[in-house]
Amino acid sequence: MRSRSWNNSASKIAKAIADREISTLAVSEHFLKRCRQFDSLISAWVNVDEEGTLKQAAARDAAVGVCGLLGGVPIGVKDVIDVQGFATYAGSKTRATEQPARKDAAVVARLRNAGAVIMGKTVTTEYATMDPAPTRNPYRTDHTPGGSSSGSAAAVGAAMTPLAVGTQTAGSLCRPAAYCGVAAYKPSFGAVPTEGLIPLAPSFDTVGVIGRRVADVKLAGAAIIDRDLTTVGRRGGAVACLGAAAYRASVPEVQASYNASRNILWREGLSVDEIELPVDLDQVVSDHRIVMAGEAYQFHGHLLTLPEGVLGHHIGRLLAEGQDTSEIFVRDARERLSIAREAVWEALSGYTAILLQPVPAPAPATLGATGPTHYLVPWTTFGGPLIVVPGTLSADGLPLAAMIGAAPGNDADAFDIAERLASQLDILPDFADAFSHAPGDNQ
Question: Which of 103, 168, 194, 253 is least buried, going by the fewest C-beta atoms within 10 A?
Answer without folding.
Answer: 103
